Amino acid sequence: MVMKAFVLLAIFAEASAKSCAPNKADVILVFCYPKTIITKIPECPYGWEVHQLALGGLCYNGVHEGGYYQFVIPDLSPKNKSYCGTQSEYKPPIYHFYNHIVSNDSTVIVKNQPVNYSFSCTYHSTYLVNQAAFDQRVATVHVKNGSMGTFESQLSLNFYTNAKFSIKKEAPFVLETSEIGSDLFAGVEAKGLSIRFKVVLNSCWATPSADFMYPLQWQLINKGCPTDETVLVHENGKDHRATFQFNAFRFQNIPKLSKVWLHCETFICDSEKLSCPVTCDKRKRLLRDQTGGVLVVELSLRSKHLCFPNG
């Protein structure tokens, strides 16, 4: 009786091993996230089991996931520079990451058609982030799935209380006209990206409208550097955050309640392939209290029939 039980178990195990019905659909799903790439293949492609498929021909890390074999590249900048054969290249303004999943059978006889699924993710390197410097947040954040990924969801333009850039101030905030000329502290921060990517400010400018192409503009940063001595760039291209400060101002000939919008064109720089830190010519800067002051937020300016110089 015991022998029969063993025979039945052996037959059941053999039947289970052959339960993979060949799927001949040449389909691959790719999800490109800011730090992770997930690839899915319909289970049992041409009769191959998940343990017979290798990411990059190196890693047998596939798992069953809802009718698919799923492979994950968890970090775009691992310590060994390449996760399971993942390769990357930069063709301005696009980053490309690519890999493949192949069948790899060590047995003497191969009974299934070999498979090789190639896939890639591309990411734009330049983004425009907006902040109602003195009104409300307008930056759209989202993650796009598919072969075109985006870093945009991880970027934010923030205001801070002082030059330590450790405490954020929520917009909107209000500045009285007596505070014109006081320091404002801002920065673009990237969260959740691989450490290889650094934030670089290409240019920042202010407008009295949410439209970043509004004809009336005040340039603060151009080609990564301050436009005058009232702007001080603290960090640019060295880390996951780029920071700067500038003097509060108002646009001339705007009604009593004036709103100022800040826009920054931001570049996500791959430090493994490019030199990211921005170096500017040394210029005479005004000495100022680096502890700054707590801002009240909107830069809606309340005028009491006062006259202001242009700018």
UniProtKB/TrEMBL annotation:
It holds the Pfam family Zona_pellucida. Residues 19-283 form the ZP domain. Coiled coil: none annotated. GO terms for cellular component: plasma membrane; side of membrane. Keywords: Cell membrane, Disulfide bond, Extracellular matrix, Glycoprotein, GPI-anchor, Lipoprotein, Membrane, Secreted, Signal. It is found in: Cell membrane; Secreted, Extracellular space, Extracellular matrix. Its main location: membrane. Gene3D superfamilies: Zona pellucida, ZP-C domain. It is a lipid-anchor; GPI-anchor. InterPro entries: ZP-C, ZP-C_dom, ZP_chr, ZP_dom, ZP_dom_CS. The keyword Signal applies. Residues 1-17 form the signal peptide. The keyword Glycoprotein applies. It comes from the Eukaryota. PANTHER family: BETA-TECTORIN, ENDOGLIN/TGF-BETA RECEPTOR TYPE III. May form homomeric filament after self-association or heteromeric filament after association with alpha-tectorin. Interacts with CEACAM16. One of the major non-collagenous components of the tectorial membrane. The tectorial membrane is an extracellular matrix of the inner ear that covers the neuroepithelium of the cochlea and contacts the stereocilia bundles of specialized sensory hair cells. Sound induces movement of these hair cells relative to the tectorial membrane, deflects the stereocilia and leads to fluctuations in hair-cell membrane potential, transducing sound into electrical signals. This is Beta-tectorin.
